[in-house]
């Protein structure tokens, strides 16, 4: 996806996650820490750090919660994804 709007649209699909960089940008735009995101999802902070670094992916249950959170953040902070490179 090269168009920022397409990246935002991808967030709308249940369970679809944006690139790790966009995940981090959305969290930072909302002023949230990794620990706050982790607590909301019910995982350790290190899990969120690994997801944002692209080292691991959340399993199905956590993926759905994380995708839901990211969709909400994208709706509140659409400019957070406009300059991000595409996921490979």
UniProtKB/TrEMBL annotation:
Keywords: Plasmid. The keyword Iron does not apply. CDD domains: HTH_XRE. SUPFAM superfamilies: lambda repressor-like DNA-binding domains (SSF47413). It holds the Pfam family HTH_3. PROSITE patterns: HTH_CROC1. Residues 24-77 form the HTH cro/C1-type domain. InterPro entries: Cro/C1-type_HTH, Lambda_DNA-bd_dom_sf. SMART domains: HTH_XRE. Gene3D superfamilies: lambda repressor-like DNA-binding domains (1.10.260.40). It comes from Streptomyces yangpuensis. This is Helix-turn-helix domain-containing protein.
């Amino acid at each position: 996806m090269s168009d920022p709007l397409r990246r935002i649209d991808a967030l709308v699909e249940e369970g679809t996650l944006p690139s790790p960089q966009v995940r981090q940008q959305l969290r930072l735009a909302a002023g949230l820490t990794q620990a706050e995101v982790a607590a909301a999802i019910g995982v350790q902070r290190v899990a969120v750090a690994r997801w944002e670094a692209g080292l691991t992916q959340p399993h199905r249950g956590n993926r759905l919660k994380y995708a839901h959170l990211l969709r909400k953040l994208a709706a509140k902070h659409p400019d957070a994804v406009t300059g991000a490179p595409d996921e490979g």
